[in-house]
Amino acid sequence: MIITRSKALESIERSLAPHRKVSVIGCGLCAATCETGGEKEVRQIARLLGEKGKQVPAELMVDGVCHKRLLELLARREKGRLDGTEAILILACGSGVQTAAEVFDLPVIAGLDTLFLGQIRRHGDFREVCSLCGDCILDGDASICPITRCPKSLVNGPCGGAEEGACEVIRENRCAWIEIYEERSRRGSLDALKEIRSPRDHSRHTRPGRVKTSRS
67: exposed, middle or buried (C-beta count within 10 Å: 0-12, 13-18, 19+)? Predict the structure, then answer.
């Protein structure tokens, strides 16, 4: 789940200042779950733009703005409604915005800030648990990622600054390495913590990444 938050209306207004007719496209997957780009949010921002003197020719949704083929189908299907549009406001993550820029020969404006890959703890409560580092070590740490959940990204923690189980950097969080220790203790596998892990291989997380399957 890609976690996003809405940009301030003033910021969106500045980006849209040169454009009078603005269509809005929301994402029915991640952004909808975050309540930043679902049907409700698309209608809301369209209404606000109307109050600011903008015309909104189309209010559209797609199940994954980052899916280029789906977006291309949407563009063809809704061509009549999009005719005359001068810019498109995208309520999706940064991947969705860049995908839309490849599909539409128009200025594409980001309506959201992309924050992190998150875990859904409960409705409206998200926590970052993965850094997409390309070198997963979850099998060795009781399925707790120290790269992400430790602010120092220590692979041979803990740092020694934790107090009463609280992280030295973010006091409201528990120390990830204490959690790893407790889970390993519960599983009877504390000996694994004696192994000194080699420094991370950052070459495995080169940018921009690309993966092509046999079906591509």
Answer: middle
* Amino acid sitting at position 80: G
* pLDDT tens digits, 118-146: 998 888 899 999 998 888 888 766 899 99
Are the CB atoms for 70 and 92 separated by under 8 Å? no
Other beta carbons within 10 angstroms of residue 185's beta carbon come to 12
CATH of 2-116, one of 3.10.20.310, 3.40.1190.20, 3.40.50.150, 3.40.50.2300: 3.40.50.2300
Region of residue 142 (left: phi > 0; alpha: psi -120 to 50; beta: else)? left
**Which tokens hold the place of 93?**
């993550």
User: How far is Cα 115 from Cα 150, in angstroms, rounded to an integer?
Assistant: 17
From CA 149, how far away is CA 125, in angstroms rounded?
A: 16
Provide the token pair at 142: 């009781």
- In the chain, CATH 3.40.50.2300 covers 2-116
Taken in order 115, 16, 49, 91, the sign of the CA dihedral is negative
Q: What is the pTM of this model?
A: 0.86
Q: Is 180 helix (H, G, I), strand (E, B) or coil?
A: helix
